[in-house]
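S1.2 Input.
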Amino acid sequence: MKATYEKKENNFAELRVTVDGDQWKEAQKKAFRKVAQQVHIKGFRPGHAPADLVKKAVNQREVWYEAVDAIAQEALNYGFEQFPEVKIIDRPSLDVEAISDEEAKLVYRLEVYPEVTLGDYKAVEYKEDKVSVKKDEVDRQIKSILQEQAEEILKEEGVVDKGNIAVIDFEGFKDGVAFEGGKGTEYPLEIGSGSFIPGFEDQLIGMTTDEEKDINVTFPEDYGVKELAGQPVVFHVKVDGIKEKKLPELTDEFVTELKLNDDVKTVDDLTKYIKDGLKNQKKNEAEEKATNTLLDGLCDVCQVTVPEAMIEREVEDTFNTYVNRIQQQGMQMDMYYKIMGTDEKGFKVQLRPEAEKKVRIRLILEAIADDLAINPTEQDLEEEYKAMSEQYGMEVEKIKELVPANYLKDDVKMRQALDTLKKGFEKKEEAAE
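S1.3 Output.
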C-alpha cells in the first residue's frame, strides 16, 4: 500500500491510499468467492457450478467493489498509521478514484481538526479581584438563619403587614376567564419575599382574615408563558389566616442546636464560620470571573474556524445534559418548553452560542498545550482517576472503564495548559512587585 495526505479548504482533507500487490490480489480472491456464492447458473446449485462457468457469469466490477468494501477499513488504518498527526472530526467518506486487476486507488474525504493560529496568548492577563467580607454581609446571613428558624404564630387580630405570612386562596383570570396554573389554596405567601408577580404582595397589605378582594396586576414582558407575558390579569384572593414570625434569640445555645459542624458552638464561632464561607464563595467567584476573562482574551488573540460538525455534537451533548438536569428536578421537557416559550429546535438554537464557545476554547487550549509541550504523565492520569473516584464514589477501575485514558488525557492536558497560563501570569506579577 501507498498513502498520501493533502489538506483542503475549510478543515477538509483527502487521504489517498493505493492498494496493490498481494494485498489487492488476495482481496479480489475473497471477493470473487463471495460473489460466486450468489451466482445462479441453470442446472447447478449455488456454489456447485464449474469454476469456468462461474467466472464467465461473474461481473468483474462487482468483484472489485466487493474487494474494496472488504479492504477499505484496513486501507484507512494504514493511511492513519502513515500520518498519525491527522485528527478527524467525523467518519470519512470513501470514493474509488481508479480500479483494475492491479490496484485500487481509494480517496478518503476527511473533516479534520482545524488549525489554530496562536497569537500572543502569553500576554493575556489572568488577575483575580481582591475579595473582602463586610460586617453587614455576615449580619444578613445570620438574620437569614434566624428567619429560617423563626416560629410562625397565627395572628388573632390585625391586618396583613410586611414580613407577615398571608395564607391565601387565589385564582387568576384573564379577560374574565380562569387561566391554567393561576389557582392555589391555603398558600403561605411571605409579604416582601418577591415570589409573586410584582404588585401582588403589596396589595395584600392591610387585608384582614376572611377578607376577599380582587387584585389587578400585569405579568412581566419576559414571563415564561407566552400567552400571559405582558398581559393584565385579575386575581380573586381570600385571606384564610395571617401569621407572623417570632425570631429566636441569638445565643450560644441556639448556635449549638443548629449543628452546623462540630467546631461551631458559639455566636463567635458562627460569625467566623459565615465569614469564612462568604470569603471562599467570593474567592471562587473571583477565580471564575478571572478565568472567563482569560478565556475570552485567548479567543480574541487566537484564531480558529470551528467546524460545524463539532458545534452540532457539542449542542447535542449540552442539550442532553440540560434534559437530564431538568428531568431530575421532576419536570418533563414539554412543560419546560411551555414555560420557556420554545420547543426542542428553538432550545437547541439557544444552546448554540454556548456550544460554539466551548468548542473554540477547547481547540485553543489544545493548541496552547501543544505549543507549551504539555504532556500529562501516567501519574497525572492516575491522580485524576483517583480524584474522580472520590468525587463519584466509584472504584477507580470502574472509572477507567467508563473514561478511557486517551479521553482523560485530553482533558487533563487542557486543564494543565490553563493552569500554566494562570500561574505564569501570577509569577510575572510577583516579579514586578
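S1.4 Remarks. Residues 425-433 have pLDDT under 50 and may be disordered.
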